[in-house]
Amino acid sequence: MNYTMIGQCLEQVREMKPLVHNITNVVVTNFTANGLLALGVSPVMAYAPEEVYDMAKMAGALVLNIGTLTDAEVRSMLIAGRAANEHGVPIILDPVGAGATAYRTETAQMLLKELDISIVRGNPAEIANVMGETWEIKGVDAGTVTGDSAALATQAATAWGATVVATGKEDIISDGTSTYVVQNGHEMLTRVTGAGCLLSSIVGAFAAVGSEPVKASAAAVCTYGVAAEKAARIAASHGPGAFQIELLNQLYQITARDVENQGRVKQLS
Ligand code: ATP
Ligand code: TZP
Ligand code: MG
Ligand code: MG
To answer: Which residues make up the binding site for substrate (predicted)?
Structure first.
């Protein structure tokens, strides 16, 4: 995995414009759709049990986000997930708020059991809580991370047979064998709701264009982090409102060359 490959993944995403089917939360729906469009991806949000099978089977990726889940939505996630598995569509799970309530933890665990999930993207506390550990979580936000995120991501990846993306100040991406750390990103991402949810959907877009999930995930996380740094240089001094809009502008503008010049990715194993 080198910066040229990451740039190529970005260019492939732009060329192929994959359809990303999101079953996501009510907080981030609009921001997620705008972020995907800015990058050059086709987003669709579809929830009805009557249509999710048909939508998921023709998508490039399916993103399941439990941020404001209801039983009806969970039923749709299972139908969409079955369609994705039957048609070779990668599934990305964002276990928003796992550990904050038993319903969230148990739903994430059930989805991992019932579906073949390709990538799980969350903050370290969410990943740990789905693994059955108890890490501090405040609603949907990670508390102070005291554990070893790299060990956690590697163990979770092995346990789930999936790629795990544990994000925060540093992002760990592991499939249990290969593990990467991405040091791009900016603190302003913590002041905008949906910054993590949008990243999960962008991971879906990169997974849709074909490279193996661990590499697609590292490429997506690096690209997103570089875009956030560029946005911060322009808008951080104005505050979160300006930063949020500038992040969309930079997802539109980011090039392979930006990633090659500004990417900070290390392979740990
Ligand atoms: P949380 O609810 O705990 O904020 P999240 O689902 O919003 O979790 P994050 O962990 O915030 O997801 O990750 C979203 C993006 O923000 C990632 O690209 C990550 O690298 C970046 N990020 C998060 N915290 C920081 C930070 N302190 N410094 C730099 N980048 C960060
Ligand atoms: N409450 C339920 S979902 C949600 C909130 C605030 C959005 C979480 O978004 P992110 O990307 O995890 O910060
Ligand atoms: Mg965040
Ligand atoms: Mg989140």
So the answer is: 45, 194
